[in-house]
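Format notes (please read before filing issues)

Several people have asked whether sequences and structure tokens are stored in separate files. They are not. Every record keeps both together, in the order shown below: the sequence lines, then the token lines. Line labels are part of the format and must not be stripped during preprocessing.
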Amino acid sequence: MRYCKRCLYNELHPLNLVIDSEGICSGCRIHEEKDKLDWGKRGQILGDILSNYRNSTGNNYDCIIPVSGARDSYFIVDTIKNVYGMNPLLVTYNKHYNTDVGIRNLANLRIKFDCDIMTLTVNPETVKKITRSTFRRFGSIYWHCLAGQTVYPVQMAVKLKIPLIIWGVHQGIDQVGMFSHTDEVEMTRKYRKEHDLMGYEAEDLVDLNFDNLTTDDLRPYFYPDDKEIEHVGVRGIYLNNYVRWDSRAQHEDMIKKFQFESLSQTRTFDSYNDVDCWNYSDIHDYIKLVKWGYGKVLDHSCREIRLRRMTREEGIKQVSKYIFNKPAYLDLFLEWIGITENAFHFILDQHRNKIFWRRNTQWEWEFLQDILSFGTKSDDLDQAGVFSEFKITPVGVSTDNSNNYILIGKGYS
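Then the structure lines:
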């Protein structure tokens, strides 16, 4: 197995990363553009795009921004509203696995930026039924979140006739170098299905024989018809094509300016991303390890290596520290979905990747240790800095239940 000499990704990355003749992966090569592109000019291109969608009559919003209580939502809204002067409508899909920190962050986001927000909350029993099906069929407890987060903004764009959607970072660019920033790729239904949804549209999940999933159950996740999208002229652009993307720096700026709350995570050192969800950096990430042989700590280490805040050797150290951590909140999920721990592991084992795992003589699953070697050569970037811990902020006071999933939390802080 070949590993990138600069970061820690290998050639089996599920997004089809490519390693060149010099041993450097496509993600690292495209990342080099961040130090070469004229971001001032890229920002002017963004300004020109936004000008074309500004609502001159004042009877509608200028654009839609998908948000949550984590990730880069604050930075996106700050850039689009405060820097470029747009009037956005915020939309959010309720993932049901909400933490109290995420609820406060989302409420604070709406208030600090004085924005309207629309939320989709699907019937909890329907979400549980869908999750039982997706976990059984392709080993995902997060399909409904990914589907909802990527379809609800498009549904609202069509319904409210707001043609511009502004997304944050394109994973295929920032992580594996699938495209150049200058390609200015936009959100497509095809990419969403193949990469976000693991190849399954909502219509594909209808199953009246085993899971009893009906068309009505899945209707909230149906993508609008192409004719509806064309009629409104909906397009979705990615902000990282026009702004030099640096998730850590952006979050720390938002902590300083708007009191974004961070939270320590089970399986990674990044305390800024995904703090709104009990499961993303916990159970969902553990499932990723079982299926793909790596987790978010490797993604985050590769990002920090490329941004010269971590050496490759420090990245290996961080991965080794977190990669085998067991989920801390499995009991919450099992109670929510209504299955036993034995059933959970039985189903998960059906999706275990035998490239990375084998049974030992005690019939226990064992990770193939040589896969953690990350190759023997290193091509550290110049001036790689000494890694410093991510900030853990003070957290606010909330009457929401901080030790359980929060379905509906306070809309103010």
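For reference, the curators noted about this record: The longest strand covers residues 88-93. The two ends are 50 Å apart (CA to CA).
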